[in-house]
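Write out this protein's structure.
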Amino acid sequence: MDYKKWIDETAALCRPARIHLCDGSDGEYRTIATEMIEKGVLVPLKRPGSFWCHSHPDDVARVEENTFICSKRKESAGPTNNWVDPAEMHQRLRKLFSGCMEGRTMYVIPYCMGPLASPYSKIGFEITDSPYVVLSMKIMTRMGSAVLNHLKDSFIPGVHSVGVPLKPGQKDVPWPCNPAHRCIAHFPEERSIWSFGSGYGGNAMLGKKCFALRIASILGRDEGWLAEHMLILGLTNPKGEKKYIAAAFPSACGKTNLAMITPTLPGWKVQCVGDDIAWMHIAPDGRLYAINPEAGYFGVAPGTSMKTNPNAMRTMAHDTLFTNVALTPDKEVWWEGMNGPPPRGLISWLGSEWDPQSGKPAAHPNSRFTVSAKQCPIYDPAAEDPQGVPISAILFGGRRNSLIPLVYESFSWQHGTFLGASVSSETTAAAKGETGKVRHDPFAMLPFCGYHMGDYFAHWLAMGRRSDKLPRIYGVNWFLKDREGHFLWPGYGENSRILKWIFERTSGQANAKKTAIGYLPTTLDLTGLSVDLKQLLKVDATAWQKEAEELASYFTLFGDRMPKPLLEELHQLSQRLKTCTS
């Protein structure tokens, strides 16, 4: 596809007042930010190079009900995705996008997912009428003129509009969006993305979930690699030995905190490659290598503090875009869980003075900070390695207040794939809708897999047949509670004790015992920590049997595309539980 012709065709449809091809320069960023300040959209902060903004109250999270996979055949999208026939969707989109950018600037953003020199990176173009998206994509991707030098014969096209054209003389609103007609559509066979009506990051930054997971998962299936909702961290022991770990957790379940963890164990060090997405391929040496396709963090602010994630706090000390947090009178930001009681005179995420007696949070639970990964004090230079980093272990986790023990190891790659397919977690504010409800979220990919999830499971199994040097797979759960609702495990930096056991397991140094669900630690380094390890590693056979029965019911959702090896793993789990003594 010729990108210039595509730009002309899109402009003819959307009819913008002007077209701007983004060069990705710092000067361009400052110019656009200044224009947004003059319009009252951005508020400059006391911290250097940083801004505050707030969105429309109905445009604050991913909207799964308005997100579609428009494959040619409905069965290709599978039962966990919303499907619309591509011809029907194109007809709908042409009506929505016709004239949608009148009075606005159409920004053309060339960007690269992954290091520019990497053979595993992919190039995309996003057309948008949102200056907020331009600033965000500058931070989150390798964006601008340099990308054009690496453009060959293909790219992933994406078109986004807030969906509110400006008529002559009409005054703009600070955060335009069109909730009544929101639509985020992905076309697997065309490898294209169209997003209308939302300005929220996950719906509007098309390089993030739309490209890096939904479209990339399809590319990975077809080309033999994995696009995963996973952090990547480098872990170094006191002897100087270093290993890389990838971990999948549903959104707002602690990925960023783990990716930037400050170990409490003396002599251990963590470096961050990425906090959200991993593209993984099998290298000629048979090992699984990963790149982080992103260049920034789009992190959840509430709960982030010097106690929970000091590295994140230091990362956002300057040049950060804050969305839907609270604003203090002296032009600083604040959110729940940040540092003590709220200051007086806060402006809430809604843009008005916050009433402490209202019972409503000052910052939206899904408020965000957008910042360059290179500002992280523990940024791993290997994140720029074109070949990626070798992965020694993969973790799956979520929010479960019972059942799932603190940590356990799978018996094999196939059994580990079963663990990934079995992930369930309490819902969070990262997606619109009810929070705190346990739902199935296989591989933490439920909202992000671009094709039939049964086929996705099969792709994982197929990857396992290609090498005998793939990572070990683990289940983890930082969120166990006692009967009074108190957390049994302190989490945060103390999770380094779990990482140490996993590190040593992959080196053949740590001991474990075989149980019905997998290998559990016989000991953990709990020096200076008082916890009930027996309760944390408990395997309740009765509760697990109920979980197995519920899983059996859930797996029927995927019909005859549910891989038989995973059904066999479930059967074997049930058989082991019948004789479980743990």
